[in-house]
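In this section we turn from sequence analysis to structure. A common task in structural bioinformatics is to predict how a protein folds when a small molecule is present, because the ligand can shape the pocket around it. The inputs are simple: the amino acid sequence and a SMILES string for the ligand, here adenosine-5'-triphosphate. Study the lines below before reading on.
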Amino acid sequence: MIRFEAASRSYPGQPRPAVDALDLAVEAGTTCVLIGPSGCGKSTALRMVNRLIVPSAGRVLVEGQDVGGLDPIALRRRIGYVLQGVGLFPHRSVADNVATVPGLLGWPRRRIAERVDAMLDLVGLDPGAYRERRPDALSGGQRQRVGVARALAADPPVLLMDEPFGAVDPVARGRLQGEIRAILGRLGKTVLMVTHDMDEAVRMGDRIALMREGRIVQADAPARLLARPADAFAAEFVGGDRLLRRLALLPAEAHAEAGSAPGAPALAPEASLKDALALMLASGADRVGVAGSPRIVTLAAVRAAAGGPERGPP
Ligand SMILES: Nc1ncnc2c1ncn2[C@@H]1O[C@H](COP(=O)(O)OP(=O)(O)OP(=O)(O)O)[C@@H](O)[C@H]1O
């Protein structure tokens, strides 16, 4: 796990610390997303974890160890790092890029070659087709996949991701986010990620930590942040369409009830409540069926879920 304990970073000549007494824990095997306005300290906080930036006060622990007491080079080999634009070595093949950390760790060549192929497979790139390519012969999304493969190659328990999908076009981005989230979940990685994109935070995060001026305004599960922003700043930041975002997170099946809706359109079993609402709007009906089940989702159920069980007093 990653833990910030009153971690601060000040710069000379700045009126306030870039990161100000940050307390945050990222539980093992979960993804926490740092989000907030430009300059709020997200990247500074992230870089304290692998000691690219040293705290002026407080400390950061990785798997129980204060990173301030660890050799920075050894530390960085235990922490995967994925950057926007990836930072692949342009004159090296995809295979050489993915092999970077295992090579530094002195793995035998054969083990490295097997690992490279396994990592390319993992991120959805056919090793035979991509192993020998140079980064400039890849699309933005493919480069990003190689960046993730490289970060995971030595099987680090902890992964840092700084705007990892910024260079990927919006259509490919959604798919890539879903795939990478599934991979990270399956591997049980502990991930701290920075983004300025709320949709990305909702899609990728088990928790979202919203920052402002070096401090955390709210750290919560995405559904809770969307349903119940802590203050006016949080409400404005998560946006006017936060209720739709929340509906997209909720499976329709979980909000279905017994009933029939003759002639009404049917939802796919894995559909979200946002899908249900879209189908109601498109068909003019106030209820839709769930395919293959004697259950329905009603407009009233969508309304109730949008406000959420967590809605506080007015
Ligand atoms: N080396 C430095 N010297 C002085 N000030 C710095 C330095 N690095 C960062 N800062 C300041 O610290 C604050 C936080 O910067 P940081 O890069 O962490 O923000 P951010 O939230 O990641 O922003 P963005 O979303 O724009 O990348 C900013 O006000 C920035 O100007």
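The radius of gyration is 22 Å. As an exercise, try to locate the residues that line the adenosine-5'-triphosphate site and compare them with your own expectations.
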